[in-house]
Amino acid sequence: MSREATPDNPLPARDPDGGAISLRQWAYSVLEEGQLETVLSRAVEALLIGLIIANVTAVALETVPSIYAKYKVLFTGFEKFSIAAYTAEYLVRVWSSVEDPRIAARGPIGGRIAFAMRPLMLVDLMAFLPAYFAIFFAIDTRVLRIFRLFRLVKLARYSPALPALLGVLYAERSALFASMILTVSIMCVSAELMLLAEGSAQPKVLGTLPDAMYWAITTLTTVGYGDIVPITAIGRLIAGVTMVIGLLLFALPIGIIANGFVNDLHRRQFAITWSMLKRQPLFADFEIEAVTEILDAMSSKTVREHTQITLAGQNAASFYMIASGNARLEHDGGEYDLGPGDVFGEEALQVTSDYQRTVTARTEMRLIILPGEELRRLARKYSLLKRRIAHEVPW
Q1: Domains delineated in the chain
Q2: b/e code 221-231 from CB counts within 10 Å (16+ = b)
Q3: E strand intervals along 223-338
Q4: DSSP character for 391?
Q5: Distances (CA, A) of 22 to 116, 226, 247, 280, 395
Q6: Predicted TM-score (pTM) of this structure
Q7: pLDDT tens, 29-73?
Q8: Among candidate residues 187, 359, 180, the one with its CA nearest the CA of residue 256
């Protein structure tokens, strides 16, 4: 008899082909991003985030002699535990990575190597690998401390906004490069002008172009350390103009990044409109008040290609409608393509039901989501909605 999934026991009972889920599939669904959220996956994620924060805190406290001398054994034991935990996490991620169809297509060895070369996996590797080198080689503890602080970068794995920000930097790379060239050009011109104006008056601090360039960059960035100050009238005029230009120059890349980031967030979290819902066959002939109430209960989400949206055997927590994109529905009877207007996850009508089918995104998709609790409330209020979901949903 197969093990069933419950809210307290989130292990899926079946894979898409109907067999008992393997340990590797289970590990992949718990650890990897883009999979269904369960109590266990959220708990594992919280523990890993807590371990990262605790490591950074420990590194900071170890630099306080009085604290380190008193708790040296505790610090050492915690570091050994952290290394073991990070090593186990890394190995399990690599081992289970072939559950991703894109990785499996490259073969069990080549796919895992390609997966291990991903930026986030390299960050995970650097979180513990230097500690093993320290066992065999004499490494300065200060250098080792830098790599331990590097563990903080692991938090990027749990921040969906950071990949979006990196994507914005890449998408706007041409504009950012142009703004950087403009900044360097202004810095060189300001430095040359200051050298001409102040070089003879202050030969020790502004007698060379590198010295003047140092002054120019500190002035353009409005840092102004005050270690180099113009003393002539023309020098002060150049300094004032440079300060104003600096404010404008550094506002340019900030505006480019902010605009790109906002646009990307709008793309990922699109607005659900009344007309969008009204076009859905599921809500045909519904009164305006009913559609408006349903609209208020919904949320939106954009998912990437190959993301598993529902998994057979997983607790049915939400009902989904496809606004755009395509998906593949898999169950014992075969496979079907889903597109805009299709719905799935009708199992959420039942309080303790599990998904009977696995749905995987074939392209980037925009989904309209109705939480199971809201779905059941609306179904009780609007019997037509319940009948349509229960009897008229395809597959």
Answers
A1: 23-158 (1.20.120.350), 171-268 (1.10.287.70), 274-392 (2.60.120.10)
A2: eeeeeeebebe
A3: 299-303, 308-310, 318-324, 327-331, 334-338
A4: I
A5: 22, 65, 58, 37, 26
A6: 0.56
A7: 788 744 445 677 778 888 988 999 999 899 889 889 999 899 999
A8: 180
